[in-house]
Amino acid sequence: MAKTVHPRLLSPGFSRAMQDPKWARRLLCGTALLFLALLLLVPLAAVFTEALRKGWGAFFESFNNPDARYAIYLTLLVAGISVPLNLVFGLAASWAVTKHDFPGKSLLITLIDLPFSVSPVVSGLILVLVFGVHGWFGSFFNSIGLQVIFAVPGIVLATVFVTFPFVAREIIPAMEAAGRDEEQAAIMLGASWWQILHRITLPNVRWALLYGVLLCNARAMGEFGAVSVVSGHIRGETNTVPLHVEILYNEYNFVAAFAMASLLAVLALLTLVAKTALEWRIQHLEKEAVTERTRHRENEPAA
Amino acid sequence: MNKNKRNSSRRVLPGFGISLGYTVMYLSLIVLLPLSAAFIETAGMGLEGFWNAVTRPRVLAALKLSFGLSLIAAFVNSVAGLLVAWVLARYQFPGRKLVDAAIDLPFALPTAVAGIALTAVYAPNGWLGAPLADIGIKIAFAPPGILIALMFVGLPFAVRTVQPVLENLDSELEEASAMLGASRLTTFRRVILPVLLPSVLTGFAMCFARGVGEYGSVVFISGNMPMKTEIAPLLIVTELEQYDFHAATAIAVVMLLLSFSVLFIINMLQAWSNRRTGHSRA
Amino acid sequence: MSLSAINISKHFGRTCALDKVNLEVKSGQLVALLGPSGSGKTTLLRILAGLDYPDGDGEGRLLFQGRDVMDLPARERGVGMVFQHYALFRNMNVFDNIAFGMTVLKRRERPSSNAIRDRVMELLAKVHLQGLEKRMPHQLSGGQRQRVALARAVAIRPQILLLDEPFGALDAKVRKELRRWLRTFQEEEKLTTVFVTHDQEEALELADEVVVMNNARVEQSGSPQEVYDHPASPFVIEFLGNVNRLKRGRVQPDGSVTSLYVRPHDIQICKHLQGHTLEARVLHVFSAGSVGRVTLEYLESGEMLEAEVPRSEVDSMHLASGQTVGLRFRHIRIFTRKGETSTQELIEVPYEHEA
């Protein structure tokens, strides 16, 4: 998303013609910041305030029960399964799509993005239709004794569905931008597919890959709607952290609910920090590439 | 020993078959198969059954509420998003980078957390809810609360679609406009806004689509009263809990069709914008 | 290793990139594929490399030293390739780039790390880049990158070296230096080399043999002298160097088209009209350089001509705009095209000293 090189990075400062009058700057700036503070900052602060309403003791006590600990374990487990699955998919899809030409390519790219535009609740519902007891494959899975819906496999499936495009959509543009020349050069030098992948292709997209994994993980750990539909809300069995937050909240156990929520909020903040750092890193690399290209064109030799 | 065929289907870089095969298989299994289930299930109901299922008063009320509030939220966010993007792209102020990073908070913050946090703030005894309640404005457990939740989840879309366009805007446009004697406001209205329009509309469409499907951040603050504050996704969950798969699927199909239309519109908008700015790259 | 490509055709969708092209390269030769962009030269090079395949009608054959290699994938052909934009591995330093081809060999065939090191150092010396082995590609100048790409390509001791527009991205000065250097390098290594270029000067100066391509076909191939002095078609004469084209007698009664070509340096200018000279008016005289370039108007038809005459003559004749002078052509090449066939005749006018 924030992958374009700021012109600001290349040419510092704006010309006078692009500057607004001082009063307008103050007014616009003030309005925007107030709006953001009310909409974003206040709720975030509320999470931590509510969590600590009865002090640190009560806060820590909230994690000291098996249901809470199981919810944390389950969330880590689900993310631990879904993120690698979507990472492998993202790599396969981007390799096929960016290093080869075939008919139907743009349709494939559109289909990969599809889960983004499906409501989480609908995502859950369609999984119930396919894997539920009365669903298409329900009786099959029943006969082999594997319960999908209202069990952990369903939660994993729902999470995989909603986080499906995250890694792919970050790697595809990066691989596309890297081109095919280096891979072809490696082929000419006798490298195998595996050697090309791990010595050339992957190092070239490593930051985009990390970025995709980061976003995928954040969503996987925080998904609520889709997981809520397929989980059945069984404590200590199918409750992830976001679902546990809901249960505690609906039981009016606010301190515990917000304590669990603060855990997710901290995760979100860490994600934002890492994301920003990665974006700087990627932008820096792009800027380097741009100046390099310019130099290439002008051909001034490096000292 | 068919050399002809081998020649034309040969590929220079390795791994095409396996990577494309895996991609298509995984995509079909995880995404396409379940999605098709919704439509096949609906087809089984027949057109009349489908129509009856989605025209029940409770369903209509929920759809109206979801669509109406999403439209309003998308509109407010488009204006606010343009403002925020402008401030971030054009002004230098202390903490600008921090604010820039914070825009993505709604992406990163799990919806359930956002839901209970917004409820705590806007409940009649909350930080902002209490003073507003004093002057007779009810936010939480009423449509305005839903609106705020939808604005919260949609904001990053509105900002992030406009911001890069604004940052990459050719400064010569504005300089030329100023040289021709236009005021800042005229320049904005006649030179900058037309360039931004496709991205603003794209942001609007994304906000709207996200709002219609949103569940986690809304269920806590909405109050969930049938006919009044019950959103469509919640109604799906309710129908499912009563094992009424048909009713749930019918509502889901309406929402899916809407999502796909929005997706289509966004693609059109992107093509339009690319054509207008002369970029042919996808 | 000798190389021959026989009957190679290639279409991209409906556009034809190569139309039954033949190419013959003798062992150790340096061959230039010369042509304008879109003439198919790069496609031909990529087919030699195995980065593209000809149309699947099964007629195209590719032989290295008599052995059919069409079915060999690129990585097994033992061909070195220098890409137009070098395609250096951006995440590896110069050393690792050059060593890459050796390090990806199977363990059994892979040289020891010391042997690899020695080979890389030897190559770095050969391409005059000693001491730069730790640099990353983006820290190098264009000419340095080009030489790293070359060292990387020859590190695996290929039998054939292919270069795609090797000097295309370099400025004029670096280009001249590298050209000379490549020639020496190729002679030392005795590598069969094919390079693609759109620069006729480069092709004529560097190559043992020039293959002129146009519109997916080979127009002519031969030594630089051959193609320059005996161009086989109007395209070749127009593409190789400056030439004046006169439209005299354009369409004959039998439908054939005749064009008359004369090179600027084959035009002799006489101060006064004499027996066989043609009448022309001087429009401009550019005399900054070793030769004077004179723009003339051929009075009979009003056509413009470029002539190149030694500076001494320009000065001694006091040529200036507006003067009327006499012209004499030393060589005239006449192409007559009738339908698909084209014939040519060369008229040599004996060189006469001015009286």
What does this structure look like?
The complex is a heterotrimer of chains A (303), B (282) and C (355). Chain A is mainly alpha-helical and 303 residues long. Chain A has helices spanning 7-10, 22-51, 55-61, 66-99, 105-113, 120-131, 138-143, 152-162, 166-178, 181-188, 193-204, 206-222, 225-231, 241-250, 254-298. Chain A has a single domain (56-291), classed as MetI-like fold, CATH 1.10.3720. Chain B has two domains: 13-43, no CATH class; 56-281, MetI-like fold (Orthogonal Bundle). Chain C is built from nine helices and 19 strands. In chain C, α2 packs across α3 and α2 (94-103) packs parallel to α4.
Gist of the model:
The complex is a heterotrimer of chains A (303), B (282) and C (355). With 282 residues, chain B is mostly helical.
What is the first-to-last residue Cα distance of chain C?
A: 56 Å
**Low-confidence residue ranges of chain B:** 1-8
Structural class of chain C: alpha+beta
CATH superfamily of the largest domain in chain B: MetI-like
Shape designation of chain C:
globular
Features:
heterotrimer, B: mainly alpha, MetI-like fold, 2 domains, disordered N terminus, C: alpha+beta, six-stranded mixed β-sheet, globular, disordered C terminus
Question: What topology does this entry show?
Answer:
The complex is a heterotrimer of chains A (303), B (282) and C (355).
Chain A: H1 7-10, H2 22-51, H3 55-61, H4 66-99, H5 105-113, H6 120-131, H7 138-143, H8 152-162, H9 166-178, H10 181-188, H11 193-204, H12 206-222, H13 225-231, H14 241-250, H15 254-298
Helix pairs in contact in A: 2-15, 4-8, 4-9, 4-12, 4-14, 6-8, 6-13, 8-13, 9-12, 10-11, 12-15, 14-15
Chain B: H1 3-9, H2 16-54, H3 57-90, H4 96-102, H5 105-108, H6 111-122, H7 129-134, H8 143-167, H9 171-179, H10 184-213, H11 216-222, H12 232-241, H13 245-277
Chain C: E1 3-12, E2 15-25, E3 30-34, H1 41-49, E4 61-64, E5 67-68, E6 79-82, H2 94-103, H3 113-126, H4 142-155, E7 160-164, H5 172-189, E8 192-197, H6 200-206, E9 209-214, E10 217-222, H7 224-229, H8 234-239, E11 244-246, E12 257-262, E13 267-270, E14 278-286, E15 291-298, E16 303-310, H9 311-317, E17 324-329, E18 331-338, E19 341-348
